[in-house]
Design goal:
By secondary structure, the protein is an alpha+beta fold. It contains 10 helices and 7 strands.
């Protein structure tokens, strides 16, 4: 990660580049972008003009349901937002995507350590955004015993900030996972029949699913 920071200027720019490459068709407002990337609005205001000048981003008006408060009542109504979206005309998209997506801040040891406090984790498999298969139904599969889903949810959210993308993930107790393997569960087939990577396997049924 330090190498990319040096090449691209700083961590904020790397996160912004990665976020928009992984969410190319989704416009985002400044406040929402700050929450999703963990970058302060002040830092973003320094980086965004450069990305606009490079035609990596473009400004876009878009509509989204928002909460309107009227006294004590809250209602949902479509509101207009001013935001940013990836500029599909950017000529170095493929090269930059290969560099930044393949260099996701992730390695086997750190990922195992990240979820070690969530219970007895026996299987971790990554797919989807982690292997540049953005059509996959899930990005992360966790299997184990006595898993604390609240801890897992917090760990995933912190990972989302680092990656710049919302992650789809599934969590199974070991017995439930083995049952699903035996009945050829469609979700598991969608993981193991397509590009994926095993990070940890203490279940002993991984080869049978691959």
């Amino acid at each position: 990660m330090e190498i990319l920071d040096a090449l691209f200027g700083n961590q904020a720019r790397v996160r912004l580049l990665r976020y928009f490459l992984l969410n190319q068709t989704t416009p985002v407002a400044l406040v929402e972008l700050s929450k999703k990337t963990g970058i302060s609005r002040q830092a973003m205001k320094k980086e965004l003009p450069s990305l606009l000048r490079a035609h990596f981003l473009k400004r876009k008006l878009f509509f989204r349901e928002g909460e309107i408060k009227r006294g004590k009542k809250k209602t949902l109504k479509k509101r207009k937002f001013s935001g940013f979206v990836f500029d599909e005309r950017f000529q170095y998209k493929n090269e930059l995507q290969n560099l930044l997506v393949e260099s996701l801040p992730l390695d086997n040891t750190s990922l195992i350590r990240r979820f070690s406090s969530a219970g007895k984790v026996k299987l971790i498999v990554i797919s989807g955004a982690f292997v540049q298969n953005l059509e996959s139904r899930i990005d992360l599969l966790l299997v184990g015993d006595r898993l604390n889903k609240n801890i897992i949810d917090r760990k995933v959210k912190s990972l989302e900030v680092e990656l710049g993308r919302e992650l789809r993930y599934a969590v199974f107790e070991t017995s439930d996972f083995k049952y699903r393997v035996n009945v050829y569960d469609k979700l598991l087939r969608d993981v193991f029949d397509y590009p994926h990577r095993k990070i940890l396997d203490r279940v002993g049924v991984f080869e049978a699913t691959g």
